Amino acid sequence: KVDYDVCSNYGNWLYSAGVGNDPRDNRKFNMIKQGLDYDGNGDYVRLWVPELQGIKGADIHTPWALSSAALSQAGVTLGETYPWPVVTAPEWSRHISQRPGGSPHPRGRRGPAQAPVQHKDRGIDFYFSRKKDA
Q1: Rounded Cα–Cα distance for residues 134 and 118 (Å)
Q2: Which of 16, 44, 51, 88 would bridge with 39, disulfide CB 3.0–4.6 Å?
Q3: Which residues pair with 82 in a beta bridge?
Q4: Tens digits of per-residue pLDDT, 112-132?
């Protein structure tokens, strides 16, 4: 059985491209976060991107952030066997260092330069209001 909803699929593609309808200002789809959330070990990427099969775990979501030794061990040469990223959004940086199990970033970075602001105690009005006080 194939689950296919034309409107939902087109809407999700538009949203992912950053041109979808969203009531929140300046909202962007974060591919690195989604990869870590829904494919934490990188199995899906490994299945469909055979060039990256040698990269272990969640590092597969950000091969450009790996050291040259790790890339060499995985048999990946950026710009030759796998392309450099076309875009690296600033929003991705806070997720690049997040690895399952808490292992540090391959280049020794301990975490994001600035901790993300948490809004766990805020009601839904915070997310839909124009005022964005942290």
Answers
A1: 8
A2: 44
A3: 78
A4: 333 344 445 545 454 455 555
Give the closest residue to 65 by CA, choosing from 37, 41, 99: 99
Name residue 49's amino acid.
Answer: V
Single-letter residue type at 25: D
Cβ atoms of 61 and 105 within 8 Å: the answer is: no
3-state secondary structure 82-121: ECCCCCCCHHHHHHHCCCHHHCCCCCCCCCCCCCCCCCCC
Q: Which domains are seen in the chain, by residue range?
A: 28-97 (1.10.579.10)
Tell me the residue type at 95.
H
Token digits of residue 8: 């939902």
Residue with tokens 């040259």: 68
- Long-range CB contacts for residues 120-129, cutoff 8 Å, separation at least 24: 127/24, 128/23, 128/24
Q: Is 10 annotated as a binding residue?
A: no
Q: CB–CB of 79/87 below 8 Å?
A: no
Sign of CA dihedral 59, 62, 67, 69: positive
CB 99 within 8 A of CB 59: yes
Q: Are 59 and 66 a contacting pair, CB within 8 Å? A: yes
